[in-house]
């Protein structure tokens, strides 16, 4: 069985892989996440996913599949990554309040020791409810916004902020497992099943 190496320290991505009986080797990529103001969010997440996977793949050479992923939230031409602090988290939630936005995750799969590199992305539309200042403040007080693109986590209290989603729920969590399964099947003759 080919080993999967997750080029991420994201507990959410690891949990998702474990749900599908994949126990990944966890290796945090040693890259500086840049902001790409002029680029489209799809290009940004694919570039960052590639940088993460490529950095980690250099440490392996036995055909392991290295998975890099990066998620951003995009709304009205602005790209939202992870909030820097509580105030940044409030600012992001206020900006997304009562708006539709896109959650975009880039995926890169690299077969270690080869030149095989697959890069793709998944996009999900999310609409926030019309939230009161009190609701926003209470959400931020949960601390759930920390280390989350767009300052919310759909799998927890953040679900209470959402009116609807169109697309892959797991993409909003941080790893579009259906897209991942499709890419593994198509390019590596593997499946999450």
Structure, described:
By secondary structure, the chain is α/β, with parallel strands linked by helices. The protein has one domain (4-188): Maf protein (Alpha-Beta Complex), CATH 3.90.950.10. The protein is 33% helix and 25% strand. It contains 6 helices and 7 strands, in the order βαβαββαββαβαα. The protein has helices spanning 11-19, 41-57, 86-96, 133-141, 169-173, 177-188, and strands spanning 4-6, 25-26, 65-75, 78-80, 100-111, 117-128, 162-166. Strands 1, 2, 3, 4, 5, 6 and 7 form a 7-stranded mixed β-sheet that branches. The two termini are 13 Å apart.
In short:
This protein has one domain (about 5-190): Maf protein, CATH 3.90.950.10.
Distance between the termini: 13 Å
- Report the sheet with the most strands, covering strand number, pairing sense and barrel closure: 7 strands, mixed
Shape: elongated
Q: What is the CATH fold-level name?
A: Maf protein
Radius of gyration: 17 Å
Average pLDDT score: 94
The beta-strand count equals: 7
Uncertain residue ranges: none
Structural class: alpha/beta
The amount of beta strand, in percent, is 15-25%
CATH class: Alpha Beta
């Amino acid at each position: 069985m080919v080993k999967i190496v997750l080029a991420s320290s994201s507990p959410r991505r690891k949990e998702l892989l474990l749900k599908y009986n994949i126990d990944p080797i966890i290796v945090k990529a040693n890259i500086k996440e840049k902001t790409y103001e002029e680029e489209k969010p799809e290009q940004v997440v694919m570039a960052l996913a590639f940088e993460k996977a490529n950095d980690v793949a250099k440490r392996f050479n036995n055909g392991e599949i290295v998975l890099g992923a990066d998620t951003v939230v995009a709304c009205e031409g602005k790209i939202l990554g992870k909030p820097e602090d509580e105030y940044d988290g409030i600012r992001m939630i206020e900006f997304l309040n009562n708006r539709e936005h896109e959650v975009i995750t880039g995926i890169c799969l690299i077969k270690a020791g080869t030149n095989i590199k697959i890069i793709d992305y998944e996009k999900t539309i999310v609409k926030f409810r019309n939230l009161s200042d009190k609701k926003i403040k209470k959400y931020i007080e949960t601390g759930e916004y920390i280390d989350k693109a767009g300052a919310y986590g759909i799998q927890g209290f953040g679900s209470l902020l959402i009116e609807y989603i169109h697309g892959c729920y797991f993409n909003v969590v941080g790893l579009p497992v259906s897209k991942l399964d499709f890419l593994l099947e198509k390019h590596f003759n593997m499946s999450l099943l």
